[in-house]
Amino acid sequence: MKLHIVRSPADRQGRDLLEQSFRLRHRIFVEMAGWSALRRDDARDVDAFDNGDATHLLISDSGVVVGGSRLTPLNRPNLLQTVFNGLVQGDFPAHPSLGADWTRFYVHPDRREGRRRAPESAALFCAVMEYALSQGYSFITFVSSISMLEHGTAVGWRITPMGEPAISDGKPIVAAWIEVSERALQNVRRSTGMSRPLVPVSSSPAPMWPDGPHLA
């Protein structure tokens, strides 16, 4: 497996990986999870936040995308404050410039079936925390089911809800923030058994790693 960090403007390989990601997201979130509002005739899950502000962390295996996530700076238009602002009751733990909104976490259905924590999921958890540290973020926000919040807590992250749960499509969802720290990174590495860095040490923008760091 390889990790790719893809931003716009992406090169040819990055565009191919994004296209795979959009189609896999549509399959997972629309066809399987039933998020009908995201349905598109071209079978691609693309929204207003798949833009130049977004960073896509994608996991591939032999050139095929098998997992991904998206991060958007909180001082730019983002999903939490635009679509789910009603879930936020109170202030962020720090200035929005020090945070990012974590959205569209997914692992290919064939990779997670019958597994408690797929390697792809473990890699994405580690990569998200590493990337956040490399960018100087102090917290990450997200909206998810209660079970996803429990997964984050299980890997040793400090997670704080930002309001009471609400019902969406018949299921409870909650907005929360995750503390970004070296300790949080060490905890998730220890929990997942992934000790090697996945994200480049340099925090300077780069469309992607063409060769990709190899994952354990």
Question: What is the number of E strands?
Answer: 8
Classify the beta-strand content into a percent band.
15-25%
Query: How would you describe the shape?
Result: globular
CATH fold-level assignment: Aminopeptidase
Which regions are unreliable across 5 or more consecutive residues at pLDDT < 50? 203-216
Number of domains: 1
Please write the CATH class name.
Alpha Beta
Q: Write out the CATH superfamily name.
A: Gcn5-related N-acetyltransferase (GNAT)
Mean pLDDT: 88
Largest sheet: 8 strands, mixed
CATH architecture: 3-Layer(aba) Sandwich
* Percent helix range: 25-40%
Radius of gyration: 16 Å
* Helix/strand/pairing category: alpha+beta
What is the count of helical runs? 6
Distance between the termini: 8 Å
Task: Sketch the topology as an H/E string, one letter per element.
Answer: EHEEHEHHEHEEEH
